Amino acid sequence: MNTIIEKYWDDAREGAECVSPAYTVTKERILAYADLTGDHTPVHVDEDYANASHFGSIVAHGLFGLFGLSIADGLKTQSDYRFLPGMSLGWTWDFLLPIKVNDVLHVKFRVGAMRASKSKPAWGIVVLPSELFNQHGDVVQRGEHRLMIPRCPGAN
């Protein structure tokens, strides 16, 4: 069994990269999202309608893109490169291509800019540029996550 050691801010190295495990977008997950949000637009829930549309299949909701962001974040937590629990400072996120039923997604992220927190000396800030890929290698979404992460005790 491979034990993952969660990293302090001081353990991170700019440029370090990681690829997450995969996540399959199923029709059931899209329908569950439709039920959760109340958005039952036919291109998301009606297979005949969606197949006849310019998408050619059921597609995830545009705001499922936020779900895609959530998937990306969840996949990062399953990767071999993990940080101790910290505080999210925000996201920038772009939707580039539709997420379709049966897409198999994974996220590739890297450690970007890093700096010690000025207001909280026991913490550091890291920016994680990330890309969400489908099974064809197409980037369907991308953006950055800004995190505040604990520093090693005694390192500051």
What do these coordinates show?
The protein is of the alpha+beta class and 156 residues long. It has four helices and seven strands. It has helices at residues 27-37, 42-45, 47-52, 64-77, and strands at 17-19, 23-24, 87-95, 104-110, 114-116, 123-133, 139-150. Strands 1, 2, 3, 4, 5, 6 and 7 form a seven-stranded antiparallel β-sheet that branches. Strand 5 and strand 6 form a beta hairpin. The relative contact order is 0.24.
How do you describe this structure in short?
The chain is of the alpha+beta class and 156 residues long. It has helices at residues 27-37, 42-45, 47-52, 64-77, and strands spanning 17-19, 23-24, 87-95, 104-110, 114-116, 123-133, 139-150.
Tally of helical segments: 4
Which whole number gives the mean pLDDT?
89
Structural class of the secondary structure composition? alpha+beta
**How many angstroms does the end-to-end distance come to?**
33 Å
Shape: elongated
Helix content: 10-25%
Instruction: Quote the beta fraction.
Output: 25-35%
How many β-strand stretches?
A: 7
Taking the sheet with the most strands, its summary is: 7 strands, antiparallel
Low-confidence stretches: none
Order of helices and strands: EEHHHHEEEEE
What Rg is obtained from the alpha carbons, in whole angstroms?
18 Å
